[in-house]
Predict the structure.
Amino acid sequence: MTGSSQGPEGAPVPWSPPTYQESCNPRPTPPATAGASYHAYAAPPSIEFEFHPVPQSPRADQHWFGRLRMKTETVPQLMKDGFAITPESILREQGCVKFTTSEPEEEWMKERWPYTRHYFLRDPNTPIPAPARQQREEGEGKGQETQTPPRWMAHMQCFAANFETLAQIRLCELTHHQVDNCTASARGGKGPRIYHFDRLRPRESINCIYDDLSLEGLWPYPKNQEGFLEGATRRQRSEAFTSPLLQGLIQRG
């Protein structure tokens, strides 16, 4: 037995070294690549989540905030299956910290949150391909494609004022209550918007694919719970479609 477990009376069992078989066949640890696999996935993001750790509070009052951008061509499937961040989906060896680089309209972020922690994630249900050297040793990769592309890959950026805050972030603890904004686009991010949620304007939420289907995990709308997020009344939906903001989004496509 390797590792540590509980004995008959709850006492911890002393650690024991790995077996001979485990030593001869260790699981390879990937190198630290700072998101190389995500950036090599040649596709624009099609889903974006923005997180506020303190729900209902404005961004200026947050001690950090997060932005997750996902590359996928299976948005409807992710709506049906639900989406959540799990330990198995985080590519630990690809994470890093950099100085904040933001869009031009968010230049102020560099002063308030000068540091950004980068996480990279992938669909845990798609096998991670073996390194090229291992494939060659096993005789794979000769005249055929041996790597199955993941259903999705994602890049999570967490912006904060210091390393201490960034070190305390635990992605797997995030909930849909902390989603401040979420959008999704068709055709692998190249098409028009098909999903929109803004916590400040809940009546303008819309799912163009499944309407009132309750979405699981981090999807913020719709949810099977009391309140508007479980689905608006017909009158509220009519009011939402006359909203100048939503009309502008539809016209921009």
